[in-house]
Design brief:
The complex is a heterodimer of chains A (about 190) and B (about 425). Helices cover about 35% and strands about 10% of the residues of chain A. Chain A is α+β, with helices and mostly antiparallel strands. Chain A has one domain: Ubiquitin Conjugating Enzyme. A 4-stranded antiparallel β-sheet of chain A has the order 1-2-3-4, with helices on one face. In chain A, helix 4 crosses helix 5. The longest helix of chain A is centred in the first third of the chain and has 20 residues. Chain B is α/β, with parallel strands linked by helices. Chain B folds into 3 domains: about 230 residues, 3-Layer(aba) Sandwich (Rossmann fold); about 70 residues, Ubiquitin activating enzymes (Uba3). Chain: B, domain 2 (Arc Repressor Mutant, subunit A, Orthogonal Bundle), CATH 1.10.10; about 90 residues, Roll (Structural Genomics Hypothetical 15.5 Kd Protein In mrcA-pckA Intergenic Region, Chain A). Chain B has 14 helices and 13 strands. Chain B is globular and about 80 Å long. The chains are: A alpha+beta (about 190), B alpha/beta (about 425). At the A-B interface, helix 1, helix 2 and strand 1 of A face helix 5, helix 6, helix 7, helix 8 and helix 13 of B.
């Protein structure tokens, strides 16, 4: 450690000498540094594997911490719909999960009318190594296999358990923008 | 410079060579005392830990202390942040703390320089002047920032050790980070336990705990009632609303225990701070700073955990450096580029280099996305950069972060330019 301090003193002298020699070069380079969160998210996004059902879009080209996911389920009750999610990462990645919201008002056992999503890996089971790919897979899974045991929309979950055919009809009706139990849903039928 | 009378108690610690001294042949007490009197020390945070640290450093004999804190003094700080008085409420923590310690010690050679602002306001040149940085911070984000900054300085210059203290109720920890040599803050990020969360479905349907009711008010009800308004935990009206909503929810499900202080604790993630824990941890941090500067004794290697909630327990162990750490696991590679090179030429050139080994690189800087190969939309956005001159895309000295499926994490490239502006024919 003695060496450490000697080196530090030498550096200090060199620093002051260089300042004295070139007083004009005070406007040194910007010394910003990519954050750990940025590096990790860059690694994560550039190795993201999107299934055919999912498209990704970055509304702000200079900010990859915020993006939209468009999910068009290829099978199941929600086939034919196109659902938009906002995903917001913060500088606390990967220590904290991103905030994910469904911006369409839809009828789904695990998504409430405000767009809150009940997906374990986005909350209680979040781990620093959960990847963006796993989040995309998780959201797709919600449409293929709604989980009535963890409901956010209780009515939808009850119908799902009691009368699956009624649930199927309710879903296809609400996807077209229908009114169910007094709530009007968004028309999310994909035009493609 | 001479030792003042009141610091005579420190002298014996430095004047004789102790049995644990690692370099008894090289150790020189004159140098040690000189170092103590002349080293610049930076303290980040002038809160619970910071007050203790500043007091300790000044009493140990450090003469050139700097302190940064962006916060102002709140009435609730006064029980433990003993450098502040009722009349100081609303003023800068850094400024008041610096002035108080300077006046109380009354030593003309002691200079404490406060900065009222964010650590991010200062550049690398600023941080380079210090011999050691001691952190008494309350956020993971700030710790990650200062850690990355010190790692970056240590790569191109010499090592600036970082001493990090932290407390949570009756528990605390202190650690010494020798950037690029030992485990850095980012290396051990996975070990931090995230804040307690509850499944949304439990909150929505089957609450059992008072915390479930408060989370319901905060996560679900607030958004329904105020869809376009962000909850402000520092606004008493917002907190009152949250408490009332949580209480009515609790009554509905016959759950007891929703109080205003629990509400605040849950929504702000507050754990009560305890003065004695701060004192223990700050003492450990300052002890490490003293040893680092004077070389009188071996330093902590490298993590000490303290727990006072069931008798007293401490344990020390060495956190390992992580080879794939996104901050310190990647060394910078210097590259000379021709002034006329486009980004595309640059990517071709680095792909051919043996010591880089990338096949499908994506490149960014801290301020700009240069080229991202995936996902498709980002590729489309950044593709026009390929035909631009690299020298126009980056600032001199700015490092380029490269990720690639072939790399465990990332690479840093430091580019300098030479040669003609136009491609030679």
């Amino acid at each position: 450690m003695l060496k450490l301090r000697e080196q530090q003193r030498k550096r200090q002298e060199a620093l002051e000498a260089s300042k004295a020699n070139s007083p004009s070069s005070t406007n040194s380079q910007p010394s910003t540094k990519a954050s750990g969160a940025q590096v990790l998210l860059q690694k994560n996004l550039t190795e993201l594997e999107l299934p055919n059902s999912t498209k990704i879009e970055f509304p702000n080209p200079t900010d990859f911490f915020n993006f939209n996911l468009f999910i068009s389920p290829v099978a199941g009750y929600y086939k034919g719909g196109k659902f938009t999610f906002t995903v917001a990462f913060t500088q606390n990645f990967p220590f904290e999960p991103p905030k994910v919201k469904c911006i369409n008002k839809i009828y789904h056992p695990n998504i409430d009318l405000e767009g809150n999503v009940c997906l374990n890996i986005l909350r209680e089971d979040w781990k620093p190594f959960v990847s963006v790919t796993s989040i995309v897979m998780g959201l797709n899974h919600l449409f293929l296999e709604p989980n009535p045991n963890d409901p956010l929309n209780k009515d939808a979950a009850n119908t799902f358990v009691k009368d699956i055919n009624q649930f199927r009809r309710d879903v296809s009706y609400t996807l077209k923008g229908g009114v169910l139990n007094g709530d009007r849903y968004d028309n999310v039928i994909s035009r493609y | 410079m001479t030792f003042r009378e009141e610091l005579a108690s420190i002298k014996p610690l430095l004047e004789s060579i102790g049995p644990y001294n690692e370099f008894p042949e090289e150790y020189n007490s004159k140098d040690a005392i000189e170092a103590l009197l002349t080293s610049k020390v930076l303290v980040i945070g002038a809160g619970g830990l910071g007050c203790e640290i500043l007091k300790n450093l000044a009493l140990t004999g450090f003469k050139d202390i700097h302190v940064i804190d962006m916060d102002t003094i709140d009435i609730s700080n006064l029980n433990r942040q003993f450098l502040f008085r009722t009349g100081d409420v609303g003023k800068s923590k850094a400024q008041v703390a610096a002035k108080f310690v300077e006046e109380r010690i009354g030593d003309k050679q002691l200079k404490i320089t406060p900065y009222f602002g964010k650590i991010q306001d200062k550049d690398l040149e600023y941080y380079k002047q210090f011999s050691v940085v001691i952190c008494g911070l309350d956020s993971v984000e700030a710790r990650r920032w200062i850690n990355a900054t010190l790692v970056s300085i240590s790569e191109s210059n010499d090592i600036i050790p970082m001493i990090d203290g932290g407390t949570e109720g009756l528990r605390g920890q202190s650690r010494v980070i020798l950037p690029t040599i030992s485990s850095c803050y980012e290396c051990s990020l996975d070990l931090i336990s995230p804040r307690t969360t509850y499944p949304v479905c439990t909150i929505a349907n089957t609450p059992r705990l008072p915390e479930h009711c408060i989370e319901w008010a905060s996560v679900i009800k607030w958004g329904q009632v105020f869809p376009n308004q962000k909850f402000d935990a520092d606004n008493p009206e917002d907190v009152e609303w949250m408490y009332t909503a949580a209480l009515s929810r609790a009554n509905e499900f016959n759950i007891e225990g929703v109080t205003k202080s629990l509400t605040l604790g849950v929504v702000k993630n507050i754990i009560p701070a305890i003065a004695s824990t701060n004192a223990v941890i700050a003492a450990s941090c300052c002890n490490e700073a003293f040893k680092l500067i004077t070389n009188s004794n071996p330093i902590l290697d490298n993590y000490m955990t303290y727990s006072g909630d069931d008798s007293i327990f401490t344990f020390t162990f060495e956190l390992a450096k992580k080879n794939t750490c996104s901050v310190c696991g990647v060394t910078g590679i210097s590259i000379i580029a021709q002034n006329w090179w486009t980004l595309e030429t640059f990517i071709e050139e680095i792909s051919e280099k043996k010591d880089i080994q990338v096949k499908q690189p994506s490149l960014t800087t801290s301020s700009n996305y240069l080229y991202l190969r995936n996902p498709p939309h980002l590729e489309e956005i950044t593709r026009p950069n390929l035909n631009k001159k690299l020298s126009n895309l980056i600032n001199p000295g700015e490092e380029i972060i490269v990720t690639d499926p072939n790399l465990p994490m990332s690479l840093k490239l430091i580019v300098s330019f030479e040669g003609p502006e136009l491609e030679p024919i």
